[in-house]
Amino acid sequence: MFNLILFGPPGSGKGTQSEKLIARYGLKHLSTGDLLRSEIANQTPLGLEAKKLMDQGQLVPDEVVIGMIRSALAANPAAKGFLFDGFPRTKAQSEALDALLTTYNAAINVVLALKVSEEELVKRLLNRGLTSGRSDDTKEDVIRARIAEYHAKTSAVADYYAQFGKVVMIEGEGNVEEIFGLLCSAIDAKKAA
Ligand code: B4P
Q1: How far is the CA of 85 from the centre of ligand 1 (A)?
Q2: In the Cβ-directed half-sphere of 193, how many Cα atoms lie within 13 Å?
Q3: Residue 193 confidence (pLDDT)
Q4: Residues lining ligand 1, CB < 6 A?
Q5: Does domain 4-192 have CATH number 3.40.50.300?
Q6: What is the pTM of this model?
Q7: What is the predicted pLDDT for the residue at 133?
Q8: Is residue 89 flagged as an active site residue?
């Protein structure tokens, strides 16, 4: 199995690049943001609770997202690898993911961390908010709160994986194809190592 984490702040291109990477490498895409939005669309109790937090730019509790990932791994026994998009977002989620993968005799092979300036993030997300129907993309104060959550809780994920030498920083500003090329080069180098 080849498992990768696409890491970065909100709006850094994780969702955009994930679509292209899964097509190239045949990985199963697991996006906790997409899983949560599907719960919201189905108006499940979990979705209704998650929406309140997401609309304020806050993270959903660790137990909830870890449970979703546990189920998704169990539901895809034939996957040749996973691309984790937007997960893990806290150190506790990182440790839980490592423990879960160990039960499948697997591990995270690489963490690709997209680097984008805060002004560019805000610009992209407000722009997406014009068409996406995502309520967390329409208000600048909510977008800034998401970025603050990222600095407070999520940037620790990169530190956690850096201690195992698994993090590769990728310049996340530029055109989508150029950035995709940088990501592919990093994956190919890791696979060849
Ligand atoms: P997510 O769904 O993960 O979304 P995101 O971080 O906002 O965006 P992403 O990074 O995927 O967007 P992309 O750049 O592709 O999270 C939403 C919320 O769910 C969180 O705030 C949280 O509340 C909750 N949540 C999710 N996972 C959780 C977890 N593990 N634990 C707790 N809570 C969790 O796209 C952004 C825009 O940029 C697009 O319009 C795109 O077209 C554009 N773009 C992309 N690349 C570009 C480029 N190179 N140049 C210009 N524009 C670009």
Answers
A1: 9
A2: 10
A3: 86
A4: 10-16, 32-33, 36, 53-54, 59-60, 65, 86-87, 89, 93, 124-125, 127-128, 136, 146, 176, 179
A5: yes
A6: 0.94
A7: 87
A8: yes
In this prediction, the residues of the chain whose per-residue pLDDT falls under 70 are none
Position 154 scores a pLDDT of: 97
Cα–ligand 1 centroid distance for 3 (angstroms): 20
Check if 124 is active-site. Answer: no
Residue-level pLDDT at 65:
97
- Which atom of ligand 1 is nearest to 85's Cα? 3
Residue type, 184: C
Catalytic member of 128, 139, 144, 190: 128
Residues 153-177: tens digit of each pLDDT: 999 999 999 999 999 999 999 999 9
- Protein residue whose Cα sits closest to atom 12 of ligand 1: 11
Give the span between the Cα atoms of 170 and 158, in whole angstroms.
Answer: 13
